[in-house]
Amino acid sequence: MAQNLLKNPNAQEGLDFWHLTENGGDKWRVEDLPGHSGYELPCVIATKYFVTSHSEYGGRNDCGCTYEITVCLLDKNKKELQVFKPDPVTLDPESECGCSWRQMNHVFFRYGPGLRFISFQHGGQSTKGWKGWYGVRVTGSSVTLVQANTLVDT
User: Prior bond to 34 cis, omega within 30?
Assistant: First the structure.
């Protein structure tokens, strides 16, 4: 199994090893699972998650939220080689799937030589603007390097 390049992906060490680029609303905090989300995480590895005011993401069962992720492959000068930035995902507790935990996955192919850095940013917010911690929950984040000959390019 490939080694996760992200330190503290499940918040076992609080917010250590995470650089907060934005910390709006009521700030980030760490909660135990299932916490206020009301949803058990399908995998049993994570027991905590990050909360805002790929990863696995979900929301509370009483308030919708949005989730955004950007992963950049960078060269030695921090110039972008490739970027993964899908449209934000909105979770609605009244929809069929509700705000239960989901996964965001992406595999980079053909990014060429010179990869030296990887930037991983994700987060979100509540859709109702309520005061408190009603935004997206994130856990189980990972960035791994896998030999190209072990993947199937689709």
Answer: yes
* E strands present in the chain: 29-32, 48-51, 55-58, 65-74, 80-84, 89-91, 102-104, 117-126, 137-139
CA nearest 98: which of 149, 39, 34?
A: 39
Digits of tens for pLDDT over the chain (154 positions)?
A: 578 888 888 888 888 888 877 767 667 778 777 666 666 655 544 444 333 324 888 888 889 999 999 999 899 999 999 899 999 999 998 888 888 888 888 888 777 788 888 899 998 889 998 888 888 888 888 888 766 655 555 4
HEC secondary structure over 119-147? EEEEEEEECCCCCCCCCCEEECCCCCCCC
Q: Determine the Cα–Cα distance for residues 55 and 134; give it in Å rounded to an integer.
A: 18
- Exposure of 102 by Cβ count < 10 A (0-12 exposed, 13-18 middle, 19+ buried)? middle
What is the Cα–Cα distance from 6 to 56, expressed in whole angstroms? 14
Tell how strand 117-126 and strand 65-74 pair up: antiparallel
